[in-house]
């Protein structure tokens, strides 16, 4: 459950704070209203896992919220992208990105992120469950901590540092639910608790340990904000910085899981070296 769980609000978004807030193509299933109610995969007669029973977590629903369970089922059936695997030497890519846009709102950020992490699902889950140490792993946060925990439901507090003098930091709360679906699959769901200048934010992270004990990591994120003056910087800048923030968080998690002896700060630094500008540009061009 990382951020992975709420994404970096980039410098370009921070410019809008004085006025408001500053933070391959989408398939049919990602478009609101495009798919039927999802079918949950389970053994005959077995109950539906509680985490899959509803699309919403009780926070702020987004245009994508009704589609989340369908996307989860699609992820459970997925195999690693060819660019992420190799039988000899390093894989071609450390992360595969797919940007997902809304036709009627070009500023609504959406993205699918996929990695193969050379660590067990349990090792990755240990990092993702440690919310109180996210601020050491993810760039740009002053504080991240658990406010309330009730079984598999967590309310967490996030405070994003703003790089502009005399501008207050951005704060918000996220609802998280997480559960093991079986011995090799774990799911993390998250949703904005209440609107602030951040209008909506939801998505999920899915982990599936593979037969070779590597783990397939798939994440979907969707969010919108009161962009205000940030729009003057251009649609491309907003999308680029937003997707880059996602990739930075994901790759920091990958480095930490594969090298558990590293500090979170060092994992964050090494993860930044894996971010490729051309990968981000390839992702955002279809939605601009």
Would you kindly provide a written description of the structure presented here, covering whatever features stand out?
This protein is an alpha+beta fold and 288 residues long. The protein contains 7 helices and 8 strands, in the order H-H-E-E-H-H-E-E-E-E-E-E-H-H-H. An 8-stranded antiparallel sheet has the order 1-2-8-7-6-5-4-3, with helices on both faces. Strand 6 and strand 7 form a beta hairpin. The longest helix is centred in the last third of the chain and has 24 residues. The chain starts with 10 loop residues before the first helix and ends with a helix. The relative contact order is 0.23. The N terminus is likely disordered.
In short:
The protein has helices spanning 11-14, 68-76, 121-128, 134-137, 235-258, 264-272, 277-284; strands at 96-99, 109-117, 141-150, 153-160, 170-180, 185-192, 198-209, 215-225.
């Amino acid at each position: 459950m990382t951020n992975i769980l709420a994404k970096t609000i980039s410098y370009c978004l921070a410019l809008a704070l004085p006025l408001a807030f500053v933070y391959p193509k989408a398939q049919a299933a990602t478009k609101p209203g495009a798919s039927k109610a999802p079918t949950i995969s389970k053994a005959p007669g077995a109950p539906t896992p509680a985490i899959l029973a509803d699309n919403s977590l009780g926070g702020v629903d987004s245009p994508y919220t009704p589609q989340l369970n369908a996307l989860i089922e699609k992820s459970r059936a997925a195999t690693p992208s060819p660019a992420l695997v190799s039988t000899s030497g390093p894989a071609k890519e450390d992360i595969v990105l797919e940007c997902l846009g809304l036709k009627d709102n070009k500023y609504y950020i959406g993205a699918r992120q996929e990695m193969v992490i050379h660590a067990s699902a349990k090792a990755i889950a240990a990092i993702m469950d440690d919310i109180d140490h996210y601020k050491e792993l993810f760039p740009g946060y002053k504080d991240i901590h658990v406010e309330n925990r009730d079984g598999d439901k967590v309310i967490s507090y996030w405070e994003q540092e703003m790089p502009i003098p005399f501008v207050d930091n951005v704060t918000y709360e996220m609802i998280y639910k997480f559960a093991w679906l079986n011995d090799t699959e774990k799911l993390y769901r998250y949703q904005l608790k209440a609107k602030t200048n951040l209008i909506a934010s939801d998505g999920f992270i899915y982990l599936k340990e593979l037969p070779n004990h590597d783990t397939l990591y798939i994440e979907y994120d969707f969010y919108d904000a009161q962009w205000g003056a940030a729009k003057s910087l251009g649609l491309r800048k907003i999308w680029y910085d937003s997707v880059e923030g996602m990739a930075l968080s994901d790759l920091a998690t990958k480095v930490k899981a594969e090298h558990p002896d590293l500090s979170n700060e060092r994992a964050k630094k090494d993860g930044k070296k894996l971010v490729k500008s051309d990968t981000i540009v390839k992702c955002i061009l279809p939605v601009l």
